[in-house]
Amino acid sequence: MRLLITRPEEDGSRLAEHLAALGHEPILLPLIEIAYLDVPPLALSGAQALIATSRNALRGLARNEAFARAKRLPLYCVGEATAALGQELGFRDIRTGEGTARDLAPLIARTARPDAGALLYLTGDHIAFDLAGVLTALRFTVHRTILYRAMQTPDAAPTLARHLRDGLDGVVLMSPRTAETFAGLVKTAGSAEIRGVTCYCYSQAVAKPLADFTGLRLLIAARPAEADLLTLIDSGAD
Fold it and tell me: Exposed site from 109, 170, 179, 185, fewest CB < 10 Å?
């Protein structure tokens, strides 16, 4: 299948390699660009753990002067892919959620204590779920640090329109922000050319911005995990 990969460059290239190995024809068009911020050294004193709800948050942390000390803390990761990067970066105590920030809250509530120190929540400028608000309501102290900004890729609209005209079997969408961007671009260009296109969505939250498009087929992974998304894509090729 001809599949449009919409992830930012680093993760998008890795996913494209996996899909090519499965016999698909991936087309890389990042709809979001990541800009890492110059953040002062993280204040780690008194912190009990870190929280990362994306791989880009860990990449931003790796650029911070406090990174070597931060690796000594437990790390809560949103899912398996983020946990795998955490392991590559040298974290030893990694606690892995089921794939979404919403699912991560119960894990933190079970395994951390509100009186044991602050939780350092590492994010981009845009978040789809207010994890900090949920944890604060559970009496945790949460310090959010924005380590990167996610911006729409310049000139994505005409490139997307060209790929749609040329014919696509599917579009792979892995974050609510990317799905919102895709929806906006399709509305701008006109939705006629998306009829018959399948969107392979990482989660229900990713599918939500696309629910009102007529003729667009939405398939959602059984779990918000990359392995389940690849299984979904392969099942769509049958």
Answer: 109
